[in-house]
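Cross-posted from the bioinformatics board.
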Amino acid sequence: MFIHNLYKKYFVEDKLFRNTLVVLLIVLGVVFVYSDAKSDEADKLPVVTQKLVNPPFLPKHDHVAVGGPKVVKVKMVVDEKLITIDDEGTQFRVFAFNDSVPGPIIVVHEGDYVELTLINPETNNFEHNIDFHASTGALGGGGLTHVLPGEEVILRWKAIKPGVFVYHCAPGGAMVPWHVVKGMNGAVMVLPRDGLKDRQGNSIKYDKAYYIGEQDFYLPKDSNGNYKIFKEPGDGFSETLEVMKTLTPTHVVFNGAVDALTGDNALTAKVGETVLFIHAQSNRDTRPHLIGGHGDYVWPNGSFNDPPRTNLETWFVPGGAAAAAIYTFRQPGTYLYLNHNLIEAFILGAKAEVQVTGKWNNDLMKQIKKPSKIEE
Ligand SMILES: [Cu+2]
């Protein structure tokens, strides 16, 4: 009864009060909607452009964030093209982010925003998109980035999880694995704002960093046992799918081809240098190992919120993930960095070399006697 009286007094009898209230509510509503549309935190932040580089290299970045969060703009163009994937000259039509298999690594700090312009040139044949495992929502951005040939899209996402992560194309259905095993994958590193830390909270610095993208390829063969080259980009889809369904890759490679990171293209370091290795595999499990060295600090599943594991001989990277490992080289020589399924490394191609220069330390290792005839 009391409420009814109040209602009658203010809303029925006092028209001025009622109309004022209605106008006030409309104004508040407009202000709310307007401020909501304009309230993105990222709009107020400084904007920087990150120049992406081809793997195994990383874009220029700070270990410890300088200043507050930023919007980091990056651009990726999708290429559909033939590349040579082994030392026998086998050609395979890949789908590549920025002309590279794997795609380039993006490096930001926790709290930064990645603003990607994804371009699918008119000369391409297929629809593409991108799913960032480091991002949150809409299938990792996959739901908001479908671009047909001749289209581009801009996606911005906040890096709230520090670590190393995979990204890959995911257009839907069987196209998802098909595009991923055609090379459409890469990685993102989200560094903690205050840099990497050991278990005790001490800073870990690195002198250089390499990004190893491991790729499994599934090439159909003709009746003579030779790899088929398909003329048109869409040709061979069903035949390739049959090979994919065996789960037996014909090639497992680093940086897009057998021996892409050996010989003249080997990774390099000096004795005393600390190297960060980021290893990503978008589709299959793998197990990086540095022959002759170790993982001094390893984040096997890539989360920098977890303390690193120490002194590992081999670490596991589940398919669809990236890992980070840090090693300080103590001896010169040629190291092999490989997938320690040794069949995949030595027969299918998943190995790299690290050429390390410097002075040999006899205390750590010494050949006491050269190979010679067994003495009776
Ligand atoms: Cu694609």
